């Protein structure tokens, strides 16, 4: 079967492409001919990516893109290349983007099936006034008219399904297939922990990392914080200024993004507690990876994190942006009975077993067969 994967970015660190890449590799391994089309933009950078690229034999074709607003809303023309490839299936990633509407038109002309992977665009985001109008317009005048034209609508989270139904999506069209994580997260033996808190992800305002920093002076234990990931420079400058103001230079360390799975696992295993303090999340990949490593996890009580964590059962939740709430949670963990914490750790791992890619790819293949 010939499968065309469409996504906004295929260069730089991007959660959507992380799924597209692994999905494509496993579909190719299963015997399908897979191609990836995207814009030629690099996520988190002004650099342009090469027009043609390959990952483990899978061809990536990138097209010049014109930005229409924000970081990711853009238009890129790939139609002629899609007709030339003549796929049996198109998997279009990210609702509210022009390439998904183009995918519908191409599929209709070719006579192939087309699937939309939503990528949870309904999470609370800090948009401009014009951005809010654009979202409202798209949902009411484009989304409602096109959503049921897709053969299936793949929701990557359970919390977004009510939003899709409110948009007018037919219940029978919606299929829940979350993002997966590498099997290594479940298999590799855990290493010894150090007295550290870990944040792993994009260093960006939406992640609200300042909440962790503000909590640190009130933590009973003299614990160290490691912040790992690609940084937005203005936000990084703000965080470093805050650290200086609070005189925490000796307790907070920054590290660049980690791309290799084994190196990431090593970093995760080295920490006692993982914290994800985001204002909002779509599907928090790093949280799932860390839970698979039997870590003690703390997350803000946004919709996506509440989808994964049952408070004090497989992890801990605190109030978004409230460092005092976070302080109470951290100190509770540090003072807790070790036997109770072991139960929570094991529950964390078992609760995310469904996210192993070996399970996810079976669901995708069954859907498109």
Q: Care to give the gist of this entry?
A:
Helices cover 39% and strands 20% of the residues.
Topology of helices and strands:
Elements: E1 2-6, H1 15-29, E2 33-39, E3 52-55, E4 58-63, E5 65-69, E6 73-76, H2 79-85, E7 89-93, H3 98-110, E8 113-117, H4 129-146, E9 152-155, H5 161-167, E10 174-176, H6 184-187, E11 196-200, H7 210-215, E12 224-228, H8 233-245, E13 252-255, H9 261-269, E14 273-276, H10 285-292, E15 296-300, H11 303-308, E16 316-318, H12 323-335, H13 338-351, H14 357-368
Short descriptors:
globular; Rossmann fold; 14 helices; eight-stranded mixed sheet; six-stranded parallel sheet; 369 residues; 2 domains; alpha/beta
**Sheet of most strands:** 8 strands, mixed
Order of adjacent strands in the largest pleated sheet: 3-4-2-1-7-8-9-10
CATH homologous superfamily title of the largest domain:
Glycogen Phosphorylase B
User: What is the gyration radius calculated from CA atoms?
Assistant: 21 Å
Backbone shape: globular
Mean pLDDT: 94
**Unreliable runs:** none
**SSE class:** alpha/beta
**How many separate domains make up the residues?**
2
User: Could you please say which CATH topology of the largest domain applies here?
Assistant: Rossmann fold
Separation, N- and C-terminal Cα atoms: 9 Å
What is the CATH level 1 assignment of the largest domain?
Alpha Beta
Q: Can you offer a commentary on this structure?
A:
By secondary structure, the chain is α/β, with parallel strands linked by helices. The chain folds into two domains: 2-181 and 356-368, Rossmann fold; 184-351, Glycogen Phosphorylase B (Rossmann fold). It has helices at 15-29, 79-85, 98-110, 129-146, 161-167, 184-187, 210-215, 233-245, 261-269, 285-292, 303-308, 323-335, 338-351, 357-368; strands at residues 2-6, 33-39, 52-55, 58-63, 65-69, 73-76, 89-93, 113-117, 152-155, 174-176, 196-200, 224-228, 252-255, 273-276, 296-300, 316-318. An eight-stranded mixed β-sheet has the order 3-4-2-1-7-8-9-10, with helices on both faces. Strand 5 and strand 6 form a beta hairpin. Helix 1 crosses helix 14 (357-368). The mean pLDDT is 94.
